[in-house]
Design goal:
This protein is an alpha+beta fold. The chain has helices spanning 9-22, 60-67, 98-108, and strands at 25-31, 37-47, 50-54, 70-77, 80-91, 120-131, 141-144, 147-148. It is built from 3 helices and 8 strands. It is globular.
């Protein structure tokens, strides 16, 4: 397969922001304190530079968030990847802005706010990588230490 031309960095950033706004689900990779990896799909809402997610407090992802708030999040497939390193904090459903809760419910197709034991987690990206083909690997870092490089 012939690689298409590499996208300029500003185009890659715009494509990344569009995917964050439009995609519904992402793969979330967390680790337990003993290093056991856990991979789980979660719905998210991109809002004010953060990802708002919700899951039951009893599943391994939530337990891992509580013990180790740094995690990896991936959108896309192997030839159109957005890979994010982020940290998260637990947010009580009562502390989620009503407009964010409504937007999350619309996008995800379910509303965790009235559900018992379904906290939200707000993730702040610290690093974002995006690439499609080998020719984009060299300049794949779009965000480093929480700051956009583009």
């Amino acid at each position: 397969m012939t690689d298409p031309a590499a996208r300029p960095l500003d185009v890659r950033k715009q494509d990344t922001l569009r995917r964050l706004a439009e995609d519904v689900d992402a793969w979330i990779a967390t680790a337990s304190p003993d290093g056991t990896a856990h991979l789980m799909p979660l719905s998210f809402l991109w809002t004010n530079g953060t990802l708002l997610m919700s899951t039951t407090a009893t599943n391994p992802t939530a337990r891992n968030f509580e013990r180790n708030p740094e995690f990896q999040l991936t959108l896309g497939h192997t030839r159109d990847v957005i890979h994010i390193t982020a940290t998260c904090e637990r947010v009580d459903p009562a502390d989620v802005l009503p407009e964010e809760g409504e937007a999350f419910a619309r996008k995800a197709g379910f509303d965790p706010r009235p559900l018992k034991n379904y906290p939200f987690y707000r993730a702040t990206p610290t690093k974002i990588l995006a690439w499609r083909e080998v020719n984009e690997l060299k300049d794949r870092t779009l965000m480093q230490a929480g700051a956009w490089l583009v």
